[in-house]
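Notes from hallway chat w/ T.B., transcribed later so I don't forget. T.B. wanted the structure written out for a chain they're using in a teaching module, and asked if we could keep both sequence and structure tokens in one place. Agreed to drop them here.
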Amino acid sequence: MPSLVRTSPDKRPSWLEVSDRHLMKALQQDEEGALDELIARKSPGLMSVAGRMLGDAEEARDIVQITFVRVWEHRHEFRDRWSPNTWIYRIATNLTIDHLRARQRRERALGLAGLSLRAVDSERRSLAELEQREVEEIFLKLVGCLSSRQRVVFVLRAIEGFDTKEVAAMVGCRASTVRNHLFVARRKLKRELEACFPEYSPGSPIDSMREDP
């Protein structure tokens, strides 16, 4: 297995214009440079998804590194009819879900279940004044009320903006299941928001995130 440290820049130009699909074919021929290029292309997006799901940059970085280890280890299982992007994101989301479930088991064992909410500014502000960054910070504080699968669906669909079919392929379920998880996640988040952040009621910043068509 190759190191996940990318090769020097002078070795990358030959891969820059190659499609993801061609990179996967090269990967199956044991071309380490193809893995380097996939790491360069996919890491930012994977870090964004894992970071929002886990709320911890270091844990997200670990997940992304393990993802590419799995990509390399399972490269011969990839099929040409699949989307490389979806296949890689599915590996990452499965790893993140497993990590979340393990974390939740540890927290229950230690009696630490529940949300850890920091104090918020008591000054009442209108929802229109909320910046997207603040909305996402609120989400990270409320996300503990969601199951691991509801969390990944909400992040991929409502925050990252992948369409329903893509999310279904990444998570490994039907599109109708994605829509159901999204509906339940929104309802739970709104209920938790009203309980924990009443200064933002009526209404909810969760509503400002992407709706499912």
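Follow-up for T.B.: The CA atoms of residues 157 and 163 lie 6 Å apart. Might be a good example for the class.
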